[in-house]
């Protein structure tokens, strides 16, 4: 089976990695490349491994970190650790993110059993209301407690913004990280190595004339910008980066003229929803072999802008081909643009093939 498939332009991807590497270095920032969007696919990892400017690999799934355990890059678990996975995290991650003392204590217990020191970053919630310590007193109490643990070392702090609450990173809120840095260093008696100031949504600050990434923040975790060539605070394309590294293609399995309204009493669809339909008369409808099991139909868009996505079931994507100038036939291929969520889904789905090519 060759379709559906994601086509990956390896040359353009490499160009994006090198561009970002130089951009972060010029800004005084170390580079954590996030590998979760492509599920640490081996061929993708080979390309990332060759980029010398990448200092760390970050992923939210320990199974992905395990898959490239031989990599020379340092490996970071960027989703706060589950208590049930502490043994694998100590074994296969160099650094992990934390916000709960229960998990840190479990990690220290196992690390002490195998006599391995494990490094952690404490996550701080600056208002996005996802993970992290929200109250200063809770954070400082945790630091004092962790200082007493024999096999855990706090090497830094981090923040995540825009992913849940859509809070924009700004110089003002990122400066709070530096305040916490100073307070924590006073307790620990040594300097923190990594102050991680967020993800691709922080990139716009490197080009903003009115504000900057505060001096002292020295790391960004970059995922979406590498694969889609845009920052994620405002969704703007980054000059010098490629926005067309990936393309999804699917094969037409039916092309027929049919009414636009179903016939009969409307109940629930296969996913428990009661759909509504607009009467557009007879239309030329196409079906491609792609469905919700592979990707959300709301997260992709046909490259042929005259095609409209009507809906999807688990393994059928229904299209309106009526207004296209192309005379589509069964067996023809339809190309789609991807966003971050749909790229994530396609790489996760074993039913979507991956096709790597150069210019």
Automatic annotation (TrEMBL):
Alphabetical UniProt keywords: Isomerase, Pyridoxal phosphate
Gene Ontology CC terms: cytosol
Stated name of the protein: Alanine racemase
InterPro entries in alphabetical order: Ala_racemase (IPR000821), Ala_racemase_N (IPR001608), PLP-binding_barrel (IPR029066)
Annotated GO MF terms: alanine racemase activity; pyridoxal phosphate binding
Residue span, Alanine racemase N-terminal domain: 8-227
Keyword rRNA-binding: no
Cofactor: pyridoxal 5'-phosphate
Organism: Vagococcus elongatus
One Pfam assignment: Ala_racemase_N
């Amino acid at each position: 089976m060759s379709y559906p498939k994601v086509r990956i332009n390896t040359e353009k991807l490499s160009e994006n990695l090198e561009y970002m590497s130089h951009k972060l270095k010029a800004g005084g920032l170390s580079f954590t490349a996030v590998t979760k969007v492509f599920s640490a696919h081996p061929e993708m990892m080979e390309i990332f491994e060759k980029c010398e400017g990448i200092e760390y690999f970050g992923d939210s799934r320990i199974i992905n970190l395990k898959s490239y355990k031989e990599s020379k890059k340092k490996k970071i678990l960027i989703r706060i650790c589950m208590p049930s996975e502490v043994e694998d995290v100590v074994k296969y991650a160099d650094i992990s993110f934390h916000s709960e003392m229960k998990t840190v204590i479990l990690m220290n217990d196992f690390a002490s059993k195998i006599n391995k020191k494990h490094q952690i970053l404490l996550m701080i919630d600056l208002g996005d209301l996802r993970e992290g310590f929200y109250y200063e007193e809770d954070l400082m109490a945790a630091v004092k407690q962790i200082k007493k643990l024999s096999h855990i070392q706090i090497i830094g702090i981090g923040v995540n913004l825009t992913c849940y609450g859509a809070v924009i990173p700004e110089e003002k809120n990122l400066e709070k990280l530096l305040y916490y840095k100073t307070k924590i260093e006073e307790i620990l008696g040594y300097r923190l190595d990594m102050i991680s100031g967020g993800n691709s949504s922080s990139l716009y600050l490197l080009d903003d004339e009115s504000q900057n990434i505060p001096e002292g923040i020295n790391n960004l975790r970059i995922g979406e910008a590498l694969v889609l060539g845009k920052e994620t605070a405002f969704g703007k394309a980054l000059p010098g980066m490629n926005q067309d590294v990936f393309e999804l293609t699917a094969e037409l399995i039916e092309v027929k003229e049919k009414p636009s309204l179903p016939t009969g009493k409307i109940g629930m669809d296969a996913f428990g929803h009661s759909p509504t339909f607009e009467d557009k008369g007879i239309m030329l409808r196409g079906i491609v072999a792609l469905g919700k099991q592979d990707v959300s139909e709301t997260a992709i868009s046909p490259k042929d802008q005259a095609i409209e996505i009507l809906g999807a079931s688990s393994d059928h994507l229904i299209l309106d081909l009526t207004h296209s100038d192309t005379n589509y036939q069964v067996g023809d291929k339809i190309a789609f643009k991807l966003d971050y969520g749909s790229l994530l889904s396609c790489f996760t789905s074993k039913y979507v093939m991956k096709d790597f090519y150069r210019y």
